[in-house]
UniProtKB/TrEMBL annotation:
<dbReference type="InterPro" id="IPR050319">
    <property type="entry name" value="ABC_transp_ATP-bind"/>
</dbReference>
<dbReference type="InterPro" id="IPR027417">
    <property type="entry name" value="P-loop_NTPase"/>
</dbReference>
<dbReference type="InterPro" id="IPR003593">
    <property type="entry name" value="AAA+_ATPase"/>
</dbReference>
<dbReference type="InterPro" id="IPR012700">
    <property type="entry name" value="PhnK"/>
</dbReference>
<dbReference type="GO" id="GO:0055085">
    <property type="term" value="P:transmembrane transport"/>
</dbReference>
<dbReference type="Pfam" id="PF08352">
    <property type="entry name" value="oligo_HPY"/>
</dbReference>
<keyword id="KW-0067">ATP-binding</keyword>
<protein>
    <recommendedName>
        <fullName>ABC transporter domain-containing protein</fullName>
    </recommendedName>
</protein>
<feature type="domain" description="ABC transporter">
    <location>
        <begin position="6"/>
        <end position="252"/>
    </location>
</feature>
<keyword id="KW-0547">Nucleotide-binding</keyword>
<dbReference type="GO" id="GO:0005524">
    <property type="term" value="F:ATP binding"/>
</dbReference>
<dbReference type="GO" id="GO:0016887">
    <property type="term" value="F:ATP hydrolysis activity"/>
</dbReference>
<comment type="similarity">
    <text>Belongs to the ABC transporter superfamily.</text>
</comment>
<dbReference type="InterPro" id="IPR013563">
    <property type="entry name" value="Oligopep_ABC_C"/>
</dbReference>
<keyword id="KW-0813">Transport</keyword>
<dbReference type="InterPro" id="IPR017871">
    <property type="entry name" value="ABC_transporter-like_CS"/>
</dbReference>
<dbReference type="GO" id="GO:0015833">
    <property type="term" value="P:peptide transport"/>
</dbReference>
Length: 274
């Protein structure tokens, strides 16, 4: 039986309205678990609460209600040592590789910075060896160490961001829309890389996205979010094969298919299943 690494129970977050109207409930009583070795997809349109959940998980926002438990301890009430362990073992890959990498830092410093934070006892040479090792994992080389982010394509920058997340040997990777800022041709390369890293390193992955076609390639189980609430949860086969909620069916019907005849048949299928 799989061990639960991350458990979210009754998570809620409300923001004040910009126009001083009614407060906005961004996340409303969200609960889910993430088991060891699993890839869970968190899916929904813009404004569904995906990013707010992510920010609450990693401590960038404080939820109003609910608990976040990692490997048996309460993350929101953790002591210093437990918080340090959580930050080392749970790493985040951001959406935009153009914004998430400091343009004034070299690749060696960008990736190696995590080792200074989490494994400060390593020598400079030891850090460099580990940085080269993880760069090679993601399809880059030691020759890229002295270069700056501006010297790389979008896909290469996201590989650097993934290397930075992997260098401290985390157990959980939280990917917040990691391919949405990339060209379609590059998206597949990054998805294939994440799939390979999950298999080779035994990673547990929380994958946040709005594109159901992307999620289908990677995730074992899905949660569909709408207006801050979970409206559907199930295995990949259940959600794609027999979606129960009309919102999920609408999202699936909106996924483009190159073949017009197949696209029309798919839309009819989801409309008739309502």
């Amino acid at each position: 039986m799989s061990r639960t690494l991350l458990a979210v129970d009754g998570l809620g977050k409300t923001f004040a309205s910009r126009d001083r109207g009614e407060p906005v409930k961004a996340v409303d009583d969200v609960s889910f678990t993430l088991d060891q070795g699993e890839t869970l997809g968190l899916v929904g349109e813009s404004g569904s609460g995906k990013s707010t959940i992510t920010r609450c998980l990693v401590g960038l926002e404080r939820p109003d209600t609910g608990t976040v438990t990692y490997d048996g301890f309460d993350v929101l009430r953790a002591g210093r040592d437990e918080r340090r362990r959580f930050r080392r073992e749970v790493q985040l890959v951001f959406q935009n590789p153009y914004a998430s990498l400091n343009p004034r830092m070299t690749v060696e410093d960008l990736v190696g910075e995590q080792l200074l934070v989490h494994q400060g006892r390593r020598s400079r040479e030891g850090r460099r060896e580990r940085v080269v090792e993880v760069l090679e994992m993601v399809g880059l080389t030691g020759a890229h160490l002295p270069r700056y982010p501006a010297q790389f394509s979008g896909g290469q920058r996201q590989r650097i961001a993934i290397a930075r997340a992997l260098v401290s040997e985390p157990k959980v990777l939280i990917c917040d829309e990691p391919v949405s800022a990339l060209d379609v041709s590059v998206q597949a390369q990054v998805i294939n890389l994440l799939r390979a890293m999950r298999r080779e390193l035994g990673l547990t992955v929380l994958f946040i996205a709005h594109d159901l076609a992307v999620v289908r390639q990677l995730c074992d189980r899905l949660l569909v979010l709408k207006d801050g609430r979970v409206v559907e949860e199930g295995s990949r086969e259940q959600v794609y094969g027999a979606p129960a909620h009309e919102y999920t069916r609408a999202l699936l019907a909106a996924v483009p298919i190159p073949d017009p005849a197949a696209d029309r048949a798919r839309r009819r299928h989801y409309q008739e299943s309502r």
